[in-house]
Design a protein that fits this description.
- The protein has helices at 19-27, 37-47, 94-104, 143-149, 155-164, and strands at 2-5, 8-13, 51-58, 61-71, 74-77, 110-113.
- 28% of the residues lie in helices and 22% in strands.
- It is built from five helices and six strands, in the order ββααβββαβαα.
- The model has no long low-confidence stretch (mean pLDDT 80).
- It is elongated and about 55 Å long.
- The chain is an alpha+beta fold and 169 residues long.
- A hairpin with a 2-residue loop joins β3 and β4.
- A six-stranded mixed beta sheet has the order 1-2-3-4-5-6, sandwiched between helices.
Length: 169
């Protein structure tokens, strides 16, 4: 699926191994681990989702991306992450990007995105819902100290469950 708007080209990409994606992520300061193809592959494989990228090209140069999956006609950027800001060029608004997503993704009914720092994105013209939590885990050389700092009824229970089910990473 491709849409062209002036010099900008918008593409839905299934190929997560495209070197342009990895190179862009490694070079762009806005990128996080959640934008990386490995994260998208892991989440999609574990939950049987179809991973994709919404790519924005300026001419032939990759200028922005949004990793996503489709779940029941809903565009998720990206599910089961604390945040995953869309990386879009400064000369394009989020409203324009949403219009392109709606045009390129057949049968789409909703778009869900998670933002960490949305100051650079113009959200005032959009119908947005702001309810979120940020989770911070402070790492330490002592793994037991890190483990003991986690919530007993939530995180540690899931970690123990993964061990009992022989999860290997």
């Amino acid at each position: 699926f491709i849409s062209i708007w002036g010099k900008m080209k918008f593409v839905i990409q299934d190929n997560l191994d495209d070197n342009r994606i990895l190179n862009f992520i490694l070079e762009d300061d806005r990128a996080s681990i959640y934008h990386h193809p490995a994260w998208l592959k892991a989440i999609s494989s574990a939950l049987n989702f179809q991973p994709k990228y919404f790519l924005i090209f300026n001419g032939e140069t990759l200028a922005g991306l949004i990793p996503f999956t489709l779940i029941k006609n809903t565009f998720y950027s990206l599910p089961f992450t604390t945040h995953c800001d869309p990386i879009i060029p400064e000369n394009i608004t989020l409203k324009q990007v949403l219009g392109e997503i709606n045009g390129l993704v057949p049968g789409i009914q909703k778009v869900r995105m998670k933002f960490r720092e949305s100051d650079h994105l113009l959200l005032e013209d959009l119908n947005t819902i702001n309810n979120y939590y940020n989770h911070v885990v402070y790492l330490d050389d002592d793994i037991e100290k890190v483990y003991n700092s986690l919530g007993r009824r939530s995180i540690r229970r899931f970690i123990n469950k993964s061990y009992s089910n022989n999860l290997k990473i």
